[in-house]
Design brief:
Blueprint: H1 28-31, H2 44-64, E1 78-79, E2 87-92, H3 99-110, E3 113-116, E4 119-122, E5 126-129, H4 140-154, E6 164-167, H5 179-185, E7 192-193, E8 196-198, E9 205-208, E10 213-217, H6 228-238, E11 246-251, H7 255-258, H8 267-277, E12 283-289, E13 295-299, E14 304-308, E15 324-327, E16 341-349, H9 352-360, H10 362-369, H11 371-393, H12 399-403, H13 406-423, H14 434-459, H15 470-500, H16 505-510, E17 518-525, E18 531-538, E19 545-547, E20 558-560, E21 567-568, E22 573-575
Parallel strand pairs: 1-9, 2-5, 5-6, 6-8, 10-11, 11-12, 12-14
Antiparallel strand pairs: 2-17, 3-4, 7-8, 9-10, 13-14, 13-16, 15-16, 17-18, 18-21, 18-22, 19-20
Helix pairs in contact: 3-4, 10-15, 11-13, 11-14, 11-15, 13-14, 14-15
InterPro entries: Metallo-depent_PP-like
GO molecular function, one term: hydrolase activity
EC number: 3.1.-.-
Amino acid sequence: MSDERAPLGDPDHQAGDRAAHRPRTTDPLELGFTPRKPVPWLAPFLLISTGIRTLLAMLFGAYLDKRELQYAFGDGVFREVGPDGGLWLDYVADLGDGFNATYSVAYLLAQPELTVDGHRLPRAQTLVMGGDQVYPSAAYASYEDRCKGPYQAALPATPPEEPTLYAVPGNHDWYDGLTAFLRLFVRSRDRHFGGWGTGQSRSYFAVELPADWWLLGVDDQSGSYLDDPQLTYFDEVARRLGPDSKVILAAPSPTWVKAADQPMAYDSIDYFVRTIIAPTGAQVRLLLSGDLHHYARYAGPDRQLITCGGGGAYLYPTHKLPERIEVPPRDTLARRSSPTQPYDLVARYPDAARSRRYGWGIFPRLPFRNPGFTTLLGTLHTLLMLAMAGAVANWADTTAQRLVSVPLVLMVLVTVLAAGLFAKPPSASGKRHARHWILGVGHGLAHVALAAAGTWAWLALPFYDWPWPLPAVAAVVLYGPISGLVASQLVAVYLLVAGSFGVNVNELFAGQGIEDSKAFLRLRIDPDGTLTIYPVAVDRVARDWQVNPDESPTASWLSPKPPLTPHLAEPPIVLNP
């Protein structure tokens, strides 16, 4: 196993041919990629396709798992150290979404130096991407437009310090079985990602850092298990650890938080720590993860647990985080586990008050950020109205016609069932509780009641008495858009109420697509072994950009106007050796 980073390749092609041709406009033909808008997470086709991908990953994940094949790849252990014997290291996760948010963070990461709350923070020599490098799927074109393209624009060519990039795959990277991920980050030639060199040889990695610090990135295939070749690889890494070693463990998901609702979620990480690291006497001082799109830090007796998924994806709330967690959870079903330790929530960004205020933004954002979802609601309510109007028109006929209208009964059942499943989709993790059924069915009945009120209003107008097909045309042109907008506000009310009970919290924020309140970590390891963590946050991302065609080769292609104003999400966290 090698202990030095592999060569970065031909310096004449350090960031690809495009780096030599700086764009003069934001035209995709100039940039080499297409800047994308944020993903509309409640778009009907996206909801369906995401559900199908999740289901396929659950059913056929073992058949698509490429980790076993990586046994034939290189098994290098890498070493990163700065010119002064220390190291600056960045951590970013959940980054490949809309251009404005993703590029705002990439731009800050790429600058030669940041001054944040009086702290001078040079550009890091090592960048770690902590998972979900692209949304919504792992298609190669999505990687180009939503991830690689923005980072190429932020750091087009390799600067003199030759920064390196390592990446951990998240669940969205796994949707194609890691095919695109491996092609981008695990390469034998052209090993560059913008101005960063890519050196890892598998979807997991080990990096020796200064002062006997170690960075270990694990791949648990969306929370399933750690494969045998990966465990064998880290068994060899563990031979180089000792009682004085300190470990930073980068995981794809903050299972320490998710274990509060899913006790088995932390089992894989606990197994790794207990069987690989603990026997060496080394200590895991820091666990890093993305997946939840915010910044949160839990502090325990000897370890920090940090979630920092603010690289570009929609904001996830912080006001529903548990104030105290036990890791590992006491009610895990694992036959063996590490001793349980309490951890307290000591910092979060955005703070709880701002997170709650963001939640209220669902009313204006839901219909306009997700026009397809609003159209779907309008279509559903138009069909419900027509079915109810037909039942009313036949009210004077037979008793069977009064009591049973097949189209109406089917529409009501579909509405209530869809709302019930929306409260806790089958593909969602965690247990389904009574509150999911109560809120879900109540939500469905509320839509039925809204449709009844809409039918009463429609029949009071003259449109229904027009000759066919004019009533249907009027319903599509007039009733559909209005009912869709009103129904979207009913969904917004539901999401706000359900969110207060811990139901559909993700959908409450995914439906808004909030681009602001982003964050990443800049870490400093001093030669004496002191680790300082700077959680860098930016309250508002840039939305207006200017092209820099005549700057140096390493300067960002686009710069924000007005400038970004980063600050610390909390004071620096210092871990002494």
